[in-house]
Each structure stands twice: as C-alpha cells, then as structure tokens.
Amino acid sequence: MANVFSLLSLGIVLAVQGKLRTILQVTRLQLGMCAGLGLLNPFLYYLILFKAYALLPAQVAQPLNFTWALTMSWLAVPILGHRLRWRDGLAGILCYAGVLIITTGGDFGTWQVDSVLGVVLALASTLIWALYWLANTRLKFDAVGGLFLGFLFSLPPVVLVTWLFSDFSIAAEGVAYGAYVGAVEMGFTFVLWLTAMRLTNSTSRVANLIFLAPFLSLVFIQFVLGEQIRVATVPGLILIVVALRWQSAGSDT
C-alpha cells in the first residue's frame, strides 16, 4: 500500500515539475540501474528492517538502524571518492560502542542480546540504505524520475512477497497509515533527501542531521508502544549521537 502511494506522490511531483515525459527518455542502462535500486529500496530494505523490528525491541532496532549515517560516510569513500578523515574512524569506534551498550542492555558480564539475527539484520539494513542513496547520486538521470522508476520496479516483488507470506486484506486504518508512509516518509521526503545528497560535498554532514530524531523516537516508543525504556538505552544512544555529531564537526580539510 505504501509503495503505491509513494508512486502516486512521486508522479505528482513529476507532473508539477513538468517532467512526466522524462521517464520515457530513460536509456537501457539507466533503466537497469533504476530496477536494481528499486530492489534495494523499498523492497529489500524494508523487508529486512521490518524483520529486525519483529525480532528486537524497538529501542534496540531503532538506534541500530540509525547508524546508517556512519555507514554512508564510510561507503562514500570508494563510491563517491570522498575523503575519510581520522575523526570518521574514531567516531565509528565510539558509535559502535554505543551500539554494544544498547544491544547488551549494558550487561557486559553475560553479553546477552535479544536476538543476534535481529542485530545482524538491523545493521545490514544500514548497509542497504547507504548503498541505495549513494548509488542514486551516480544515476545520471532526473532525480525524481529515477525514484519513480525505482518504486515502479519494486512493486512486483512487493506484491509477490505479500501474496506468498500475507494477504491483501487492508482495513481503512491500514490505508490511512499506508498513505502517510508512502507519501510523507517514502515519497516527498525521499525527493528532498536525494536532492540534498546530490548537492552536498560532504555526505557525513548531511547524513548526521537525521540524528536529531532518535530521542524523540524514544518518547514514542515509551508512551505509544508502551515499551519500557532500559537504563542502558539512553547513554548508548547519547554515545552514538555525540560520536556522529562530532564526526560531522569541523572542516573537511
């Protein structure tokens, strides 16, 4: 459902920009890249991310997923030719120290983790997310048109997986949620994000802006989901955010 509303919102953006015809001018190479990108996101990314959320408490899965900003800044070196500063490496160590605190609940004596598979999937989602956006910046095609085609190619595998493992019965409330996620979180927001990615010379600086959100997410996890926030979650999240904000500070020289 969200995928359909994403297509509609991206189509609206193309229409407003007067670029609907651009999707008919795509080359075979660009079409192939769009198909590959569509399989990465939203198909594979959300498939893996939702499974991670099913296996882990939200307060664990959410901070792990947010470390994609660090993954993106590292992968930008081989993919986009960006320079890796010494602070990027040190920030990574501090960041994943915070991850360790959150995943173990601060209990380093027993090293118990809610789900090892869940942790692996959550971290894998950061790799897929980073690869998707970095590869998008290399696509020599209209930004919105590329997003539209990617979501179009992702629709068949999404439908197939839904048919194999679920059903197509959707309540009115589900339609409303799908419309919000598809239009706001995966539609118009993606357009703004990709535009920022194509304009920046420092991927890490743009990526780290997203870390303003995690603390607000903890409030929703506590009061909306009713999930009791662990004592170790807050200091672990603080360490992650501070490390990534410090990584983005200073010049790129």
The gist of it:
Helix content is 75%, strand content 0%. The chain is mainly alpha-helical and 253 residues long.
Alpha carbon gap, first and last residue: 45 Å
Strand content: under 5%
How confident overall, as mean pLDDT?
82
Low-confidence stretches: none
User: Strand count, sense and closure of the main sheet?
Assistant: none
Spell out the helices and strands N to C: HHHHHHHHHHH
What does this structure look like?
There is one protein chain. This protein is mainly alpha-helical. The protein has one domain (2-248). It has 11 helices and no strands. The protein has helices at residues 2-17, 28-55, 58-66, 68-80, 86-104, 116-138, 143-165, 172-199, 203-207, 214-223, 233-248. The protein is globular, with a radius of gyration of 19 Å.
Describe this protein with a few key phrases.
mainly alpha; 11 helices; 75% helix; single chain
Topology:
Blueprint: H1 2-17, H2 28-55, H3 58-66, H4 68-80, H5 86-104, H6 116-138, H7 143-165, H8 172-199, H9 203-207, H10 214-223, H11 233-248
Helix pairs in contact: 1-7, 1-8, 2-6, 2-7, 3-6, 3-10, 4-6, 5-11
